[in-house]
Amino acid sequence: MIKKVLIVFCVLFSFNYTHLVDASTKNREEYEKLGKVFWDVDLEEKFIALTFDDGPHPAYTPQILDVLLKHQAKATFFVMGAHAKKYPDIIKRQAVEGHEIGNHTFNHIYHQKNSDQLKDELDHTKKAIHEITGKKTNLFRPVGGIYNDLIIHTAIENGYDVIMWSWHQDTKDWKSPSVNNIVNHVTSNVQPGDIVLLHDAGGNRSQTVKALDEILTVLKEEGYQFVTVSELIKISHTKYK
Question: What's the pTM?
Fold first, then answer.
């Protein structure tokens, strides 16, 4: 009996230890060395990537697409699989208009319990995007920007680049700040190679829509060009590697 208890204890301890090891977090520099995790890129030329999380939304995403079309700017949308299946026509429009679509999991679960759960979330969203657009995605943005060894390595092992955002370009538009606050945050902190975080769903995004129009107007006058995340990485690799 004692032997059986010890065996069960050892198994449970081994599982918990493995889970803790998998969920440990390294500093940003260690993950960047993998060449598959990006917060931004080193550039001298004025290229940046605008990214939108949590969509698509039936009202705000089309409005954002209208603004991007008006300014002939490209963006990357990190979509939730559940929303993509609900609003496939918006996903199709994103693809047709030359925007990039990334994976933001299926159900937006903040704390992934294990690698299998995250893989399942990624697979379901990848399938939804492919069924709607005929295209595959290899970009993943962790929910809430939460990252650790489990999340990073699971994503990479399943063929994804992990895309974070420039630490100085978190607009926090999910808190519904004023239009001026969003605009000033992006335009006063902008640097070549930035990846800007915005949201097209998850709440009232009317401020984001209005701010986007002003951001594009101001930064275009300063000579900035707006490309997808993959294009931004490619430009960096082409020029400096």
Answer: 0.89
